Amino acid sequence: AQEKAQGWQLLFDGKTLTGWHSQAPPPGRGGRGRGGAPAPPQPGALAQIGTPKPCVGPSAAAVPPGGSHWEVVDGLLTACGEPTGYLTSDRSYRNFVLSVEFRCSDDTNSGVFVRSPQENGGYEVQIWRQQPAGYNTGGIVGTAKTARDYAIKPNEWNHFQITADGDHLVVVLNGETTLDIRDTRFPEGHIRLQYQQFPIAFRNIKIRPLP
Q: Whole-prediction pTM value?
């Protein structure tokens, strides 16, 4: 009740995927670099595509051709099977604070997109600790790298708080600010969760719209 009074809106109810839809990667972007070309290797770089876990039940959202499979298991939002893809919010948001918890291994390639146009793009807040171009955990891919390395807690619950207020973007991971920047390229868009066939679970996804 207190969170609701503070303006928070729950985006995932722990039971269904109401308010979300599965989305296929753009052509040529199924875990590959821009334009379909493989991303350049980095010394010691981690795999871009993981080994998927099998689905345990029917998909909780209709899956379009080429889309990824998402399901709710024990109150958690998870992706499973093949192929890679996204889970995208039905609604579009402009100014907000987004709060999301996630659990994965330390080599997982995933990210949380905000202000993502329906077709593709937006700001990808990185979960992956060793992205080939150096946009590592807590950075925004193609926009800003962190000043130092940050690490998730592997196989434990981690928390992202992402603020988008006009051109001001702030990323906080487990209470530490990883980025505080200004950028104007994406003024509005959808929330999007990325699946690259690595096991990952999400919970407590909520948003607080800002004026």
A: 0.88
